[in-house]
Amino acid sequence: MKYEHIQQEAFEANMQLPKLELVLFTFGNVSAADRSLGVFAIKPSGVAYNDLSPAKMVIVDFEGKTVEGNLRPSSDTLTHAVLYKQWENVGGIAHTHSTYATAWAQSQREIPIYGTTHADYCTVDIPCAAPMEDEKIKGNYEYETGFQIIRCFENKKIDPAEVEMMLVGNHAPFTWGKNAAKAVHNSAVLEYIAKMAFITEGINPAAQRMKEALIKKHFERKHGPDSYYGQ
Ligand SMILES: [Zn+2]
């Protein structure tokens, strides 16, 4: 009973993935955390979206240990656990293999900030973590994926509270936010940005990154202390 709220939140967020056309079959997973309880609810592994229910969401602690639930949690659970443990402000995490974002990840390319849509969400190119070293692939792969993401942000000196989306090289995107719904929202935005950047380079292979002044203006319009976007 005490986990129902995050099971419901995780269930609703997971159901958004097929609706937003961000997943094929069972690819992808979303989790929702309750930091006061030190746990998160995550999609069970390999269960079709149509067969999901709130009660099927597995409760896991930030070490990756299952606390409640009869089903095996998503195979990416340890990646979620590492991110929750290391990044204290994250309340929800989403992972998809959405087409365009994954294509950039497979190309091992950051997504250049070409326009204001991108700048409304973050002020830098969407980071792409370098592929994992062989030793780590042979070790605890999903756990290491979490640290691969964290190291990427540390190396680039990017604050995960400011940039809530990234690509894991040769793999796919991860996004997060204050809750699971925001994490899914960011997955959809990332896919949209990735698609537009791809088209931009098709139209003009020499397209330039946006000017810093314009990047700053757009981000602050939406997020700064004097923001005036929305109601
Ligand atoms: Zn994946």
Major sheet, described briefly?
8 strands, mixed
User: What gyration radius follows from the Cα positions, in whole Å?
Assistant: 17 Å
Order of strands, widest sheet = 4-3-2-1-5-8-7-6
Helical stretch tally = 8
Report the portion of residues in β strands: 5-15%
Q: Strand-and-helix sequence, N→C?
A: HEEEEHEHHEHHEEHH
General form: globular
CATH topological fold name:
L-fuculose-1-phosphate Aldolase
Task: Give the second-level CATH assignment, the architecture.
Answer: 3-Layer(aba) Sandwich
Overall pLDDT level:
94
Instruction: State the CATH class.
Output: Alpha Beta
Bound molecules: zinc ion
Give the number of DSSP strands.
Answer: 8
Please, what is the CATH homologous superfamily? Class II aldolase/adducin N-terminal domain
Which regions have little confidence, pLDDT < 50, spanning 5+ residues? none
Query: How many domains in all?
Result: 1
Helix content: 40-55%
Distance between the termini: 36 Å
Given helix and strand content, the structural type is: alpha+beta
